[in-house]
Specification:
By secondary structure, this protein is of the alpha+beta class. The chain contains 21 helices and 20 strands. The protein binds CIS-heme D hydroxychlorin gamma-spirolactone 17R, 18S.
């Protein structure tokens, strides 16, 4: 049993290794000179050998007395906690919210009313349908959840990137989720709504049409978590110092502007980099940039709410911005990545129930159901009622009460008094009477009438706002919605479901239904389904558009420069410098990562190999190639796809003179977004935008 360990054994256990440390199998444990802590069991006992189990003989059975092995494996066996039943996949970032405009007129919540005050936050941005390991760029609604660690307690604003929801009543949520998730017999498709069970359910549920149109629009495939809007969705209440209540809707607007992907691009990214959104957010913050979203509110009095042609409590409706303009409140700045994914993402527990004085609930029946569900799910996922003690969930203000014990209790509550009222502990916590406590607003309970499983008549119009959303889009966006619907329905095998969806779409807009039918190859759409209430026609709204909201900043965008042997170093460096100066993240891509000699004889510092870096991963591409290299690349399918896709995805392309052959083989035609690589200024101005005018030339318009 000769040991090949060549290190000073004592120094390997703790302290500085004198030599390179090797184990019995030749494993390298430690560089010479490195300083390290002693490896221990979970109970703190120092471990001498972390590679070999305790054996009865060199080729004998393992011994049950190997406490080091048992300690290690029994912990490992329990490393996973149940993933979130929805929104399992998400990315988090930390930072602060700063109030810039006081809402003191409406609320006593200090987070929203003390101008200049900074409140620490953590945000989790997620997909809904896919599991923890699913791809980021699938078509889906995105979660937009923010925990504000306010000085009055934690406030969780748990919203989405779409301002309305599929259903009106919480009772339907498990059915909706079961319908969209993997079909239970086969376990697929993952993270996709394009399958029978989802469309079967929504075809029977006309209230889903409004949300459906949003998610079938480009909003369902955000370019980045940095370029999507967020919404509180439900109507909440703000309550001021006089006890007056206003209804409120919350809106997040990204300072980077709204930008989405193109479907073909989203599909290809899902294969090339399933972590596309997570990586983008991480790299942005890791590179020292801040991600900013502005918070706005819309406020309404009870009287204004009563005058609306729909119910303010109906979560399938939004409040038109034209009638109730957005009022600024402050800015959220995300500037810190998590240091441990499990501790700060998996264990992060949101609940709409977490509110602070000055903010209150409405009677929205979907919200009311959520008030139960979130804490209930945390108990299951995090193993008991003490999840608020986990670092990531812990309020940053004092917590004092008589909640005691339970699984994973970390506090050591001293003293004999664990109840209230009491006189034995006069310094213990008492009910607050200073006007700063949470007291439910009586408005929530003014409704009266016979109890029952009922739906208010005021919730009956399912199509007017869906129609307005569709009518408000540009011709291109409308055709994207049509194409998305035709794509999803083409994946549905039961033709009857297609017909039922088309019949519902007919209520939204007859032209929409006819175009989707045509996209499916049908002669016509069936007649509209009977509607609970005839939809109204309303004027298009600029606020509902997608395209017009793009901020088009070059900063924070990613550009790939494709190079190869004999690339002109001067041209390359000048382009690179100008892009970097504009805040663009530049990656040099080449057929191989080593050995690319530039024209001046230097070897290029290549960031990525062409095979692993398709152009869908970038906002724009440049081809700085010598003529011979371009000719060779024109025979390489990867290179041709790189250019063809950049063109098909409506991206700006800067090309050197020598790149001509590759452009031709890839079918690139000249337009506003094709520039010479020497014209860095024009290229920089184009990297964030899409060549929308190119769209009809590269894709049939449905
Ligand atoms: Fe959720 N939802 N939800 N949801 N939801 C969860 O809570 C639920 C709804 C939203 O990043 C779960 O901690 C019900 C609307 C986000 O951790 C669960 C209903 C909106 C997240 C749950 C809804 C959301 C969740 C799963 C209908 C937008 C991720 C794990 C009544 C306003 C939070 C968890 C995070 C997560 C229940 C509908 C947003 C099961 C019952 C509407 C952003 O409790």
């Amino acid at each position: 049993m000769g040991s090949v360990r060549s290190a000073n054994k004592k120094s390997l256990l703790a302290g500085t290794a004198m030599f390179e440390a090797r184990g019995k199998g030749g494993e390298i444990h430690q560089r010479a000179g490195a300083k390290s802590a002693a490896l221990t069991t979970g109970e703190g006992t120092r471990i001498s050998d972390n590679q070999n189990t305790l054996r009865a003989a060199p080729r004998g059975a393992s011994l049950i007395s190997d406490m080091v092995f048992l300690d290690k494996l029994s912990h490992f066996d329990r490393e996973r906690i149940p993933e979130r039943v929805v929104h399992a996949r998400g990315a988090v970032a930390k930072g602060y919210f700063q109030c810039t405009h006081s809402l003191a007129k409406y609320t006593t919540a200090r987070v929203l009313s003390v101008k200049g005050q900074k409140t620490p936050v953590i945000a989790r941005l997620s997909t809904v349908a896919g599991g923890r390991g699913s791809a980021d760029t699938v078509r889906d609604t995105r979660g937009f959840a923010v925990k504000f660690y306010t000085d009055q307690g934690n406030w969780d604003l748990v919203g989405n990137n779409i301002p309305v929801f599929f259903i009106q009543d919480a009772m339907k949520f498990p059915d909706l989720v079961h319908a969209v998730k993997q079909e239970p017999d086969r376990g697929f498709p993952s993270a996709a709504s394009a399958h029978d069970t989802f469309w079967d359910f929504v075809s029977l549920m006309p209230e889903t049409m409004h949300h459906l149109l949003w998610v079938m629009s480009d909003r369902g495939i955000p370019r980045s978590l940095r370029t999507m809007e967020g919404f509180g969705v439900h109507t909440y209440r703000l309550v001021n110092a006089k006890g007056e209540s206003h209804f409120v809707k919350f809106h997040w607007r990204p300072q980077a502007g709204l930008q989405c992907l193109i479907w073909d691009e989203a599909v290809k990214i899902a294969g090339a980099d399933p972590d596309f959104h997570r990586r983008d957010l991480w790299e942005c913050i890791d590179g020292g940039s801040e991600v900013r979203y502005d918070l706005f509110v819309q406020t309404l009095t009870q009287k204004q709410a009563d005058a609306l042609p729909f119910d303010v409590l109906d979560p399938t409706k939004l409040i038109p911005e034209e009638d109730f303009p957005l009022q600024p409140v402050g800015t959220m700045v995300l500037n810190e990545n998590p240091s441990n994914f499990f501790a700060e993402n998996e264990q992060l527990a949101f609940s709409p129930m977490h509110i602070v004085p000055g903010i209150d609930f409405s009677n929205d029946p979907l919200l009311q159901g959520r008030l139960f569900s979130y804490n209930d799910t945390q108990m299951h996922r995090l193993g008991g009622p003490n999840f608020a003690q986990l670092e990531v969930n812990r309020p940053r203000c004092p917590v004092a009460n008589f909640q005691r014990d339970g699984f994973a209790q970390h506090a050591k509550h001293a003293g004999r008094v664990a109840y209230e009222p009491n006189l034995l502990d006069p310094s213990g916590p008492r009910e607050a009477a200073d006007g700063l406590m949470y007291a439910p607003h009586p408005g929530a309970d003014t409704e009266s009438g016979p109890a029952g499983r009922v739906r208010a008549e005021s919730f009956a119009d399912h199509f007017t706002q869906a129609r307005q959303f569709f009518k408000s889009q540009t011709a291109l966006q409308q055709s994207h919605i049509v194409a998305a619907l035709a794509f999803e329905l083409s994946k549905v095998q039961a033709t009857e479901i297609r017909q039922r969806v088309l019949a519902q779409l007919g209520n939204v807009d007859s032209d929409l239904a006819a175009r989707v039918a045509k996209g499916l190859g049908l002669k016509a759409a069936p007649p509209p389904a009977p509607a609970a209430k005839t939809p109204r026609s309303v004027a298009p709204s600029a606020a509902l558009q997608t395209e017009s909201k793009d901020a088009l900043q070059a900063g924070g965008r990613a550009v790939a420069i494709l190079i190869d042997t004999n690339t002109d170093a001067k041209q390359l460096n000048s382009l690179k410098a100008k892009l970097s100066a504009a805040g663009v993240k530049v990656k040099l891509i080449a057929p191989s990562v080593h050995g690319i000699k530039l024209h001046d004889g230097t070897e290029a510092a290549v960031d990525g190999q062409l095979d692993g870096n398709p152009s869908c991963l970038f906002d724009a591409v440049a081809l700085v190639l010598a003529a011979d290299a371009a000719k060779a690349l024109a025979k390489n399918a990867c290179a041709v796809d790189f250019v063809r896709d950049a063109f098909g995805h409506l991206k700006a392309i800067a090309a050197s003179q020598g790149a001509e052959t590759l452009l031709t083989v890839a079918g690139v035609a000249t337009d506003t977004h094709i520039v010479n690589a020497t014209d860095a200024k024009s290229f920089v101005a184009l990297v964030a935008s899409r060549a929308w005018a190119r769209e009809p030339k590269v894709r049939p318009q449905l």
